[in-house]
Amino acid sequence: MNDFADRDDDKMKDAQLAEVGDDDDIYGEDGSIRQDFLTAIGAAIADRDVLFLRDHVIPLHESELGDLLESINASQRQALVKLLGADFDFAALTEVDEAIRLEIIDAMPNEQIAQALGDLDSDDAVYILEDLDEEDQAEILAQLPFTERVRLRRSLDYPEDTAGRRMQTEFVAVPPFWTVGQTIDYMRNEENLPDSFSQIFVIDPTFKLLGSVNLDRILRTRRKARIEEIMDDSRYPIPAEMDQEEAAQVFEQYDLLSAAVVDENDRLVGVLTIDDVVDVIHEEADEDIKRMGGVGDEELSDNVMSTVRSRFAWLLINLGTAILASAVISLFDATISQMVALAVLMPIVASMGGNAGTQTMTVTVRALATKDLDIYNAGRIIRREAAVGVINGVIFAVIIGVVAGFWFASPGLGTVIAAAMIINMLAAALAGILLPLLLDKVGADPAISSAVFVTTVTDVIGFFAFLGMAGLWLAHL
Amino acid sequence: MNDFADRDDDKMKDAQLAEVGDDDDIYGEDGSIRQDFLTAIGAAIADRDVLFLRDHVIPLHESELGDLLESINASQRQALVKLLGADFDFAALTEVDEAIRLEIIDAMPNEQIAQALGDLDSDDAVYILEDLDEEDQAEILAQLPFTERVRLRRSLDYPEDTAGRRMQTEFVAVPPFWTVGQTIDYMRNEENLPDSFSQIFVIDPTFKLLGSVNLDRILRTRRKARIEEIMDDSRYPIPAEMDQEEAAQVFEQYDLLSAAVVDENDRLVGVLTIDDVVDVIHEEADEDIKRMGGVGDEELSDNVMSTVRSRFAWLLINLGTAILASAVISLFDATISQMVALAVLMPIVASMGGNAGTQTMTVTVRALATKDLDIYNAGRIIRREAAVGVINGVIFAVIIGVVAGFWFASPGLGTVIAAAMIINMLAAALAGILLPLLLDKVGADPAISSAVFVTTVTDVIGFFAFLGMAGLWLAHL
């Protein structure tokens, strides 16, 4: 292959790119990667034009390279990674969907992966390693230098979704008796520091955590001062076994930029940084939204069959509850055949109850997730929801009562649907708050299971109240 | 009032507290504030025991004090703030619900508010000021020192939810020709530095932003080096007018801890920090979840009437669509009176479509919010959703066809509902992805408006397909 072939062609690609103006920004107005940039990269990949790719891909931030990888097709991805070789920024793999990450990794020899991981921060390396199967993991780890291997192994030994798994094992730690001057000199001379950091830790000879100092504090203090005089000892160390979501809440509550991660003996084993915590916050919000929508842990890159599978269980449960609601209706088939208008109106009662219940449930599930709802305000919120249910129930009872009364020229039918509406809106409010609280209490995730229970309650009570009262009314007509 | 009255009583309160063990942590196992702590604080407020309150409330972190304020009742809050006087940490007001914040502020003379705001970082002061009415704002600002006033005014002049409104106007900025040593000496001698910071900015004499330097970089560099040699010039300055959500995305993409905020002339006007960005990320996720659940911008502290109002519009829209679905059913009232089983089964078709549509919609709305869905993958995702809809449609058609066929001993009825199921599941998939994409395209928020459109589509098509085909089948029987 001749890298220098067709430099004119390169100029053409450059010219195409330049036309759009600001060459620094690969994103267009709508936030996705510019079409001309993708075209030029695609052409360069097809031409095996390594020089052009080096010029335009190497300067990208890892997250930009991640977006690029997600915007081209699988064969282009493989080719791009191969063409860049050692220049491919492995950190970009932490920015793409799991499916794409595995696709790229699987096509790579383990030796190359080991070499690339060696250059990453330990948290990024672990992020990539953890998705691989045991065998590949072991083979890659075996090819890393001893200290590196021990560090990664230690992170991987902590369970998934814990602070220990997310932490970075590179940090700066100094003894308490050092002076500020000594500390600064150490940082000036030491080659092996983390890529970036915002605080240093203070430890005793056994690595027990004594405190921490923010860098701005060091910069504001005279060289002669001792570290122990300026260190902060209440910096909320995070146990390595702590769930990452809990760790994120500590960060949020105390506005931390980074925090020490300690083992069961209070020894410093790593540092958790806010950028990882931001990812956790995002993942958790994502999870809650998806669970409430009944789509579990789906990713956008999932293929048809895994999507079908991920949604099947939820739809099957819903089918069960829908059949249950139908069974309730079938109890009243004689009533319906007496007055078909009931069949026309009954979905309204169920639907309004379902929506009101979803509203209350959304507020409740969210408040539980953010820990805004606790034993001190639960009573007040339950009373409020019941009151809101009754008030909205009465308002909508009047509206639908009048509409139905005129529609079917039957004030009696209007009265029946109005009464059913009030009952179902109250039931919806109570189900919407009590069911998530109960699920939370017994340790189930209210986000994933509330919706189906709440709509079952509102369907069953809605049909039962409306058709039951209609039957009584028709019997006494 | 005698502060020293009843010190025995204090010891009793302390003893109560001590019993529970770790006195440093005011939170219990479940993450809410410990009951004994609240009891002791409540008793101290009732006793007007300022000394006890000072001992136990002043050491709290602002977010802990915020939680405490949210866990006691309104009159206790007022009393606590009064008893603490100048010792009350105003920053705690940034950690409570808007309703509680306004309740506390409203009870305070403007002079006291002005004095307290003077001690806060500008972003916290603005956060508190922005909710007050124009008149109070002006009166409070008038009592602040000139520079303070100008700073806060400048932030308040930027529109709500922009980077300018969220920024902190305290920052460290140095000229490019300074050496690292000069910069460190400046920070050691200057009294008026921000409370904490992780980078400093480099500006020209007109305050034009030239670059930035992370503190760890300064600490690793020899004193003689010039700032311009080590400064980073691609640190993603944020225009003050930029929407906070967009700013948060920049932070996330490039893993920033802080970023310069610049005005339209590229002049440095403030700094946006990751802790504020974390709050924005939370607010936005919260907003998305609540909008999808039909509860707008509700807060947990809202009272009954404002909650009724906030939910009314959504329920009214839903009533309209439910009546529309009923109108579709009423087209087939003759068919239903011919076979009541149709009324029993028809909610199943609508409900399955509604749920399948919600699944697709959740994935779509979320992917739009996180910008994972764009013109490059929209086609693939639309095809995937259609395929998933058809496959799940066929699976559930078989299940419900068999169930209904046996239930009503009518293979014909089973066939009709099975066919309707496939049609409605496909319609649900297409509505679930195309409607949010369309809403996004025309500039509407897909989170707030998709659900109602999607379920309208699945209700109408579900009833139409099932009852229509049933009518044809019965006519040819």
UniProtKB/TrEMBL annotation, chains A, B:
Q: Where in the cell is it found?
A: Cell membrane; Membrane
Q: Source organism's superkingdom?
A: Bacteria
Query: GO CC annotation: what is one?
Result: plasma membrane
Positions of the CBS domain: 167-229, 231-287
Q: Could you list the residue ranges that cross the membrane?
A: 312-332, 338-356, 386-409, 415-439, 451-475
Pfam families recorded for this chain? CBS, MgtE, MgtE_N
Q: Which family does it belong to?
A: Belongs to the SLC41A transporter family.
The protein's name is Magnesium transporter MgtE
